[in-house]
Amino acid sequence: MPQVKAQDDSRRSAKWHIRRESIVDLSAKVFAQRGYHATSTIELCEANQLGKGALYYYIGSKEQLLAAIHDRVMDEVMLGADRVALAGGSPADQLAMLGQELVDVIVRYPDHVWVFLHEFHALTGERAEQFRKRRREYEQRVEAVFEAGSKSGQFRPLDARLSARAWLGMHNYTYLWLKADGRLSAKQVAASFAEIFVWGVANSSPVSSLETADGVTRVFADTL
Q1: How far apart are CA 45 and CA 52, in angstroms?
Q2: For position 78, which CATH number holds?
Q3: Which residues of the chain carry a pLDDT beneath 50?
Q4: Contact, 123 vs 131, CB < 8 A?
Q5: Out of 31, 104, 116, 224, which could bridge 73 as a Cys pair, Cβ 3.0 to 4.6 Å?
Q6: Is residue 150 part of a domain?
Q7: What are the Cα distances from residue 91, in Å, to 17, 146, 219?
Q8: Is residue 55 part of a domain?
Q9: Is residue 43 part of a domain?
Q10: Which pTM does this prediction carry?
C-alpha cells in the first residue's frame, strides 16, 4: 500500500533517495521518447544501467515508476501553488503568479510533463485515484482564484471551473513548444498569458500590475 511504502522509503539512506530520483528522471526521458506501453522493463534497466532486481529495489513495478513521475510533477505544481497562496495579492496577481509557477515546472521538467499529460491513463486502481485527487486539488486552487476575482468584482461573474480549465489548457499546451533556451523565457510567456487572460476576464477596472513579455510593467486601471 502507498502509505506503507512511504514509511519504508523514509527509512532509506540519502544515497538511496538520490539514486531513486535519478532513475525517475532518466525513465521519464525514456517514456517521453518511446511511450509508456512501448517501453519494456529491460529497456528501463538498460537506460538506468541496473539489473531487474536493482530496479525493483529502487522503484518497484513499471507502474510505480510511472506514478513516481506523475508525483514529481504534482509535487512541484503544488509547491508552486503554496508559494502563491503565501504571497497573497489580488486575484489578478494570484493568477499571474500561478501561471509563472506552472510554466516554470513545464520548462524544468519537459519529459515528466509529457508523460504526465500523455500517459496518466495507464495508472490503475489506487494510483489512478490518487492522481485524479491531486489533479483536482490543484484545479480547485485555480478555481478559487477565479471565484475570489468574481466575488471582489475584479473579474466578471464567469463559471469558475470552466475558466480554470481554459486557463490550464492555455498553460499546459506550452509543453509542445516552449524551450528553456527559446526566444522567450518561461517568465515572459507566463506574463504574456497573464495579461491576455486577466484582460479577458476583467470587470470594469482590474487593479494589478504585471510584467509583460517585453519587460514593461503595465498597470490595469479603468481602460476597458
Answers
A1: 6
A2: 1.10.357.10
A3: 1-7, 205-210, 212-224
A4: yes
A5: 116
A6: yes
A7: 38, 7, 14
A8: no
A9: no
A10: 0.82
